[in-house]
Amino acid sequence: MHPALHSWREELPAHFVRALAYVGGLAALSMAAAHLFQSPPLTDDIKPIHRSAWIEIERPFPAFALSIPEAAGEPSTYTIRRHGQGNGRKDILSLGDPDGLTPYLQVEIYRPGSEPVTTGGPDTVIADGAAALGPVMRSVDEPLISKFGSLDIVSFNTSVGAPRHCLGFVRAYDDPNLRISGWFCQGAVKDGDFVPRGTLACALDRLTLLAAGSEPKVGALFAQAELNRSFCGQREPLLAPTPKHRALWKAAEAR
Questions:
Q1: Which residues contact 245 (CB under 8 A, 6 or more apart)?
Q2: Is residue 27 over pLDDT 60?
Q3: What is the reported pLDDT for 253?
Q4: What is the DSSP string of 178-227?
Q5: Which terminus of the chain is more solvent-facing, meaning fewer CB atoms within 10 Å of its CB: N or C?
Q6: What pLDDT shows up at residue 118?
Q7: Which domains does the chain carry?
């Protein structure tokens, strides 16, 4: 055998062993560096993002109207929310600045679906609906007669935003399954200075139905309410079809 070939074959195992040693050393160094410079583990708990069960409808088609000429210059909104699972619907009408000292009226017409519904007295329903205002309940007052029948009345103060005195109202129906609720607030001038009860009844006198859709019982309910309408104390619609109530908005603001 040629001497050069013999030498190459004898040295091959040694070269192979040294190569394996180099590779093993590089792997060990890489693992040590990765362990040394790796990012510290996350110790904070991952908090899930809270998503409301209610979905706000874009470009809502109004089914109700709240026409108060005395407050024509005030900001107004119309919001429709659908429950993501139960398919209940809330039509929310508001008039005025929600965080100011001028009068603010909000009316909610709720048609429940299969979702859980807030149960309890009128104070519980109002506290749940007006949670953003931080309501501090004062009392459950005597019912108020309106075109929608007898309303449960709750007086409360706000603890979030501008200080206000508010009258909350609730009326629930079994057939159709529908609830009307909301509140009428004004700036807190002195203790006990609430929106007059007659002013609240007059404001709700202006709540009307535009379209019942596929719910004829809702249409019948509002048609009956129109027959009970007092026209803000003037029961003759031919003489005063849309009379201005002297204490409905501007007088409430002046208080």
A1: 70, 199, 202, 232, 233
A2: yes
A3: 58
A4: EEEEEEEEEE--STT-PPPHHHHHHHHHTEEES--TT-HHHHHHHHHHHH
A5: N
A6: 80
A7: 54-254 (3.40.1000)
